[in-house]
Amino acid sequence: TGKSALKKYQEVVVGRKGLLRLLFFELLTMFIGPLPGAAGLLLRSKLYPLLFGSVGKKVVFGRSMTIRHPHKIHIGDNCIFDDYSVLDAKGESNKGITLGRDVLVGRSTVLSCKNGDISIGDNTNIAMNCFVQSARDVYIGSHVLFGAYCYVIGGGDHKTDRIDIPILSQGQVVRGIRIEKNCWLGGGVLVQDGAVIGHDSILGSGAVVRGSIPAYSIAAGVPAKVKKTRTEQEDA
């Protein structure tokens, strides 16, 4: 209330005060962001690191990325962001998004904070059209493989106890999500808030994960249930 449209825009998108900072952000995302070909890749590799909290070596930024609160985004060496990917670290008190080395974020994939934090380990590969959301803590370990259209919904569950007011007005319960190292999520897997997936597990395509999946599990279904363990496969 009482804020200008420009100030509201700056708070949501840039996340920091200062007209020069806003102008620099706008010029980069307007003219360099959508630039195609080798020229665009080269200019973004040189200029985009000036936006972020920290950027490692040999990072590739695709075309027309959506970036919010870039000062709270930290990127390791050799990461690749495909065209139209989204890095949204917005929030009033969160730390934002941290990516390790050699992380791939596929085309049109969204990493979105709702005043939460997202941490992704080294060598993790997130395919196209995935959605990772955090209103608290979403941790994804190293060497995790996501098929296309996976959803990691760490935005919490809406309270529904009352019927005299809209669900939207009743607040949320947020638990966070943890996906440990060396996991493989098939296409279309949905991981709900509060889930923990143990290391070296495999989730079949279309699985809906609630609660905990033990390490070395092969799970599938709605909700996802353990069908066998990978240690059983080795024994066989």
Q: Quick one: how many beta strands? A: 26
Q: How are strands sequenced across the largest beta sheet?
A: 2-5-8-11-14-19-22-25-26
Residue-averaged pLDDT: 96
Q: What's the end-to-end separation, in Å?
A: 65 Å
H and E order = HHHEEEEEEEEEEEEEEEEEEEEEEEEEEH
Largest sheet: 9 strands, mixed
Question: What's the helix count?
Answer: 4
Relative strand content: 25-35%
Can you summarize this structure?
The protein is an alpha/beta fold and 236 residues long.
Please tell me about this protein's structure:
The protein is α/β, with parallel strands linked by helices. Helices cover 17% and strands 31% of the residues. It has four helices and 26 strands. The chain has a nine-stranded mixed sheet. Strands 1-4-7-10-13-18-21-24 form an eight-stranded parallel sheet, with no helix packed on it. A hairpin with a 4-residue loop joins β25 (217-220) and β26. It is globular, with a radius of gyration of 19 Å.
Write the layout of secondary structure elements.
Layout: H1 5-13, H2 19-32, H3 37-47, E1 54-55, E2 60-61, E3 66-68, E4 73-75, E5 80-81, E6 86-88, E7 97-99, E8 104-105, E9 110-113, E10 117-120, E11 125-126, E12 131-134, E13 137-140, E14 145-146, E15 151-154, E16 157-158, E17 172-173, E18 177-179, E19 184-185, E20 190-192, E21 196-197, E22 202-203, E23 208-209, E24 212-213, E25 217-220, E26 225-229, H4 230-235
Parallel strand pairs: 1-4, 2-5, 3-6, 4-7, 5-8, 6-9, 7-10, 8-11, 9-12, 10-13, 11-14, 12-15, 13-18, 14-19, 15-20, 18-21, 19-22, 20-23, 21-24, 22-25
Antiparallel strand pairs: 16-17, 25-26
